Amino acid sequence: MGVDMASMFGVKPASLALLQHLNGSVLSNKDVCWRWRSSAAGQSKPISWPLVCGLMLFCLGVVSLFTGHVASDLDWYSQRLVKQRLFFKLDGSGKGPIDIWKSENGKHFYGCSKRSRKFPHAVHERSSNGYLLIAASGGLNQQRTGISDAVVVARILNATLVVPELDHNSYWKDNSDFANIFDVNWFISYLVKDVTVVKRVPEKFMRSMGKNPYSMRVPRKSPPEYYLDQVQPILKRRHVLQLTKFDYRLANDIDEELQKLRCRANFHALRFTKPIQELGQKLVTRMREMAKRFIAVHLRFEPDMLAFSGCYFGGGDKERYELGEIRKRWETLPVRYHLL
């Protein structure tokens, strides 16, 4: 009768099972759920694997639509998370650069310029083979490279390096000296263990020569052996030697310790003067106030590079003539460039 009453009031068999079992005992919720799941499992259809694969491909396609956008903003989000610690620390006490090697990610890298203990100390000025003068050449970046190479060459020659002379004869006619661009005292003190550097040749040596120092130009990318065989004997005999147009005059493939010295000179010893650093920091601060990200581009819009490019920039016959004269310096330049 209970079954009939349940049917009369529309009670479902699953609910009825909670009240009465086939043998008259009452079932628990656990037994009912187990029986219902068993029944449902017995009636389930086999999984359609093509349908599953299709859904997976669809999901991957949707994700790929957003991959480019996420990747492009990854750097911005990372800077927000680390509070731009890898760039400039902006706080109430002031604005200034921080040491990247002391940042949180610095532990994953190491510098390549640290001198080893086996690297001998520099010889004293009086014990050196003589004084080496360097006439840098090119733009500021080329001169910086030349100065770094000069430090290594002085070490190879066992010479005392005189603070290099910057190029005053380039297209821009810049009359700045070394001390106007770089911190000369820092340059000398930082390299004291590697190379002896002085600001000028002692007067007694200049008077004893009675004329300008002996000058020579070495081939580009010369190895250390060339300096030892061809340059060092002249330095020992003359005591004062000047290497002119010193740009890229040292080979790239040199001893590891000498390469470390080259890095120390370039990235540590050559430090801009305080006014230049302050001006640079002011520019960076203003740029960061205008945009979260920016990039500095060197257009290299200078006569020699314009001539070498072989392009016409709309300056008429005068431009064609002037750039044509400059192009004559390069014998290997294609003929058609000379005709532009």
TrEMBL record:
Record key words, sorted: Carbohydrate metabolism, Fucose metabolism, Glycosyltransferase, Transferase
One Pfam family of this chain: O-FucT
InterPro entries referenced in this protein's UniProt entry, alphabetically: FucosylTrfase_pln, GDP-Fuc_O-FucTrfase
Signal peptide from the UniProt entry: none
UniProt keyword annotation of Ribonucleoprotein present: no
Record family assignment: Belongs to the glycosyltransferase GT106 family.
PANTHER family: O-FUCOSYLTRANSFERASE 16, O-FUCOSYLTRANSFERASE 29
Name listed for the protein in its UniProt record: O-fucosyltransferase family protein
Lineage: Eukaryota, Viridiplantae, Streptophyta, Embryophyta, Tracheophyta
